[in-house]
Amino acid sequence: MFGRNRILFVLLLILGLGCSSLSTRPSSANKNPFRGSPNQVRDRLLSSIPIGMSRIDAEKQVVALGLTKNDPSEIGMESPPFISCRYLDKSFWYGETIWLIQIECPDGKVSDIICERIGFE
Question: Is residue 98 part of a domain?
């Protein structure tokens, strides 16, 4: 009987340690800026790419955020007045979400950001 209690105690200890290790994950792992509605994503992007930022700095931020810049030739313009990019959000439960992001820069400075979620797979 003493052996069973010891085994039960060890099993509970192992399970308890395993469960507590799940809560020690870094909180930044859950902070994906591309979760939520297009307005929420826009607000999060504006915190990294604020209105008034130069186009050159905005392009650097696009790369830093992990966005893929679209080639201007894809839209038929040599130098469009905006930065067009996309983000593929791979989610374990819901498949993939594709985000299209357009950063308006008519005068060489960011004037607005347009976000559109175009698909779930």
Answer: yes
| Nearest residue to 113 via CA among 54, 49, 55 | 49
Q: Radius of gyration over alpha carbons of the chain, in Å?
A: 22
pLDDT, tens digit (0-9, with 9 covering 90-100), for 96-112: 888 999 999 999 999 99
Mean pLDDT, range 82-107, rounded to an integer = 85
Strand 82-91 with 112-120, pairing = unpaired
In a domain, 111, yes or no: yes
For residue 113, give the 3-state DSSP assignment. Answer: strand
Task: Calculate the alpha carbon distances from 19 to 5, 7, 11, 15, 28 in Å.
Answer: 21, 18, 12, 6, 19
Helices and strands in the chain, H and E counts: 3, 4
